[in-house]
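Morning!

This is the sequence you dropped in the shared folder:
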Amino acid sequence: MVQTNGSVPVTLGSPSFRDLDLGPAIVTDAWFPAGTALPRHTHERASVVVMVDGSFELELSSATRHCGPTAVFSEPAGSAHANRMGTGGAHVVVIQPDPAEAELFRPFAGVLEQPTHRYHGGLASRGSQLARELQAADDLGALAAEGIVLEMLVALTRLGGSRRRRPPAWLWRAQDFLHSQFMEPVRLADLAREVAVHPAHLARAFRQQFGTSVGGYVRRLRLDWAAAELQRSDKALAAIALAAGFADQSHFTRSFRRHTGFTPGAYRRGRRG
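The structure's back. Tokens below.
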């Protein structure tokens, strides 16, 4: 167990992370190993956290929240909490506004000055894009990242006014199933049978909760996998496209560009340059 003492950096316990200081805010992309436990601690800055992949339990003074893929939550500065990483570890993107920029972030006080917790596929997708900008090989990465940060804070603040009922447990089971099986052919009827609900009810509830269809969610998971594969292997683009479920490489290239802003070839060259 990692020992803590009061206020700590958000990277405590992470063997692999990347920071980008935008001036008004610091953005951190960090990975935590499975089973890592962080005892109760605080951070000097308010934090908005997006779970890109994996999970952890977030223990607050009032409740314990499960934070799985697409979870988006905020912690005020000085808010005491503890974390225990799940069996797959945790990959997070963290936004920490600079307290000296109070005027810039005043419109987002509802998010930054109180704990919030929700699942939102659209915001999680923007969080993944933010993580990619931290690795950008050009000099526009910081500018793009700052724009994404402000867009996310605006969206989170607008969502803050809508009170939602707690999503049913079967929806998290459906999400976990997709993360474990996304490289296999997935049919809506099979997923509905897995969680024992009607396919139409599943489709509607999934879109309401995650901001995208089941098919769109799986496509994003496969494109995230393809992006990682482009970085860690020398496999041919056509082979990666086929493994990700794209029989047509041109379709893969168009989808990948929409998802990342780069063609697969440019993404591979930029991350290795």
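Headline: The radius of gyration is 19 Å.

More detail when I'm at my desk.
O.
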